[in-house]
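User: My instructor asked us to take a sequence, write out its structure as tokens, and then describe one feature of it. I'm not sure where to start. Here is the sequence I was given:
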Amino acid sequence: MLAALDHVQLAAPPGSEDRLRAYYADALGMTEIPKPPVLAARGGCWFQAGAVQLHLGIETSFRPAKKAHPGLRVTGIDAHAARLTVHGAAVTWDDNLPGHRRFYSEDPVGNRLEFLEPDVRKCAPGE
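Assistant: Let's start with the prediction itself. The structure tokens for your sequence are:
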């Protein structure tokens, strides 16, 4: 039986750790967490926010996926979009998921990320 999703692993090219830290820690506000020494020797970096962990592992022949991505549920989606924009990351809004507000962005190595929040806005009568 599955109990929870422990983490999501994304790939990154060699030497990209500083750019990844700038995005995941500075732009997204995640905390870098230490990798076990045997894994740290391989490069990459791990990040956490609450119960969410994203692991960025080094892949020599890295190519970002065009479609695959983690979906990150957030609170205050407009603030997340603004924060990413201020840090130079493109934000592409998408209204095709009923009951949610969401946008897509890419980390500095091209990994696609989806940010979504249930839409609790209420329409006024007649709208």
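For the description part of your assignment, you could build on this observation: Residues 122-127 have pLDDT under 50 and may be disordered. Try explaining in your own words what that tells you about the chain.
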